[in-house]
Amino acid sequence: MLVLHCADVLPGVGYGYVCVVGPRTLRHVTTSSTVAALRAVDLAPRSVSAAAFRDILTSLSIPHSVVATGADWSGR
Length: 76
Known about the structure:
Blueprint: E1 2-6, E2 9-10, E3 14-15, E4 18-22, E5 25-28, H1 32-40, E6 46-48, H2 50-59, E7 72-74
Parallel strand pairs: 1-6
Antiparallel strand pairs: 1-4, 2-3, 4-5, 5-7
């Protein structure tokens, strides 16, 4: 499981998208308290560019189309 912070603008969601990803799963992190809780268990967000963000999604078999505000996607 990775916590990603996209440092660039993503189509449809803008700048600063934070999500938790795993193989074929993506969940948008929508509150700062959730980010703080993730940091407390050593899952600090990793800042990546838009290109790297898309590459990570591809490698985890997550379609780019699921990136949206409030996304909670599982491809299982």
